[in-house]
TrEMBL record:
Pfam families: BPD_transp_1. GO terms for cellular component: plasma membrane. It is a multi-pass membrane protein. Coiled coil: none annotated. The chain crosses the membrane at residues 55-76, 88-113, 119-138, 172-195, 215-236. Belongs to the binding-protein-dependent transport system permease family. It is found in: Cell membrane. Residues 53-233 form the ABC transmembrane type-1 domain. PROSITE patterns: ABC_TM1. This is Hydroxymethylpyrimidine transport system permease protein. InterPro entries: MetI-like, MetI-like_sf.
């Protein structure tokens, strides 16, 4: 806990400054106080937690699973074949040049208000860090160790599972930690532009009612969800990389 003491103190100071500033300005429909947001969150807890949170959570989980599977498979394929790398790597980079907020309405047009329009937005955002990080990890394999294993009679399968994967795992987890935070953003953007349920949808609905505290309430849950997913990934990373000496 001492490790994060400074962060906790800074957050408390910022919240206190926000509370005092919002009370001085006294325009709750524009700048609600943190206590007002928490009160609104408590008042809306049943609707947010049991209707809108599951909708957002399903989008995040499905989008992340698809991104992990496709991202890892494509990274392995590009590492295996230089031709595939030259064909796909520029396309992966180009996919991030398209503003998500601009292309998301197209997915809503194609798939309607179903879950899949939001899932595709989430995949579009989270696919990139997983693929690139895993690919860089596979390429960082120690060539001297690879040559040593070959001289000792190791097969390509042995090199892949005993050398390439351990080398790529730290990079994969780095990309995944970025992806889990982006997944919350992707789900919220998708719901904001077209949905019938979800935390992003609820925030947009509160905005049309000029309820600033209601806009912030689902944002608090989204932030907590992102932190929770990040902690889960860190936990998996520590358990699967016990061999790696870290500070």
């Amino acid at each position: 806990m001492k490790k994060y003491g400074a962060s906790v103190i800074l957050v408390v100071i910022l919240l206190a400054a926000w509370e005092i500033g919002a009370r001085i300005v006294n325009y709750p429909f524009i700048l609600p106080t943190p206590t007002g947001i928490l009160t609104k969150l408590w008042d809306l807890r049943m609707d947010l937690l049991f209707k809108h949170l599951p909708a957002t959570l399903s989008i995040v989980v499905i989008g992340l699973l698809i991104s992990v599977v496709l991202g890892v498979l494509l990274a392995v394929w590009m590492n295996w074949s230089p031709l595939i790398e030259r064909a796909f790597y520029p396309l992966i980079i180009a996919s991030q040049m398209i503003p998500t907020i601009a292309i998301a309405p197209v997915f809503v047009l194609w798939f309607g208000y179903s879950i899949w329009s939001k899932v595709i937005v989430t995949v579009l955002i989270t696919f990139f860090p997983i693929t690139v990080s895993t690919f860089d990890g596979l390429r960082s394999t120690n060539k001297e160790l690879k040559e040593l294993m070959l001289t000792m009679g190791a097969t390509k399968k042995d090199i892949f599972f005993k050398l390439n994967i351990p080398s790529a795992l730290p990079h994969f987890y780095s990309g995944l930690k970025v992806a889990v935070t982006f997944s919350i953003i992707g789900a919220a953007i998708g719901e904001w532009l077209g949905a019938q349920a979800g935390l992003g949808y609820f925030s947009r609905r509160m905005m049309t009612q000029f309820d600033a505290a209601g806009v912030f309430a689902p944002i608090v849950i989204l932030s907590a969800l992102g932190i929770l997913f990040f902690i889960i990934v860190v936990g998996f990373e520590k358990r699967s990389l016990k061999w790696r000496k870290t500070e």
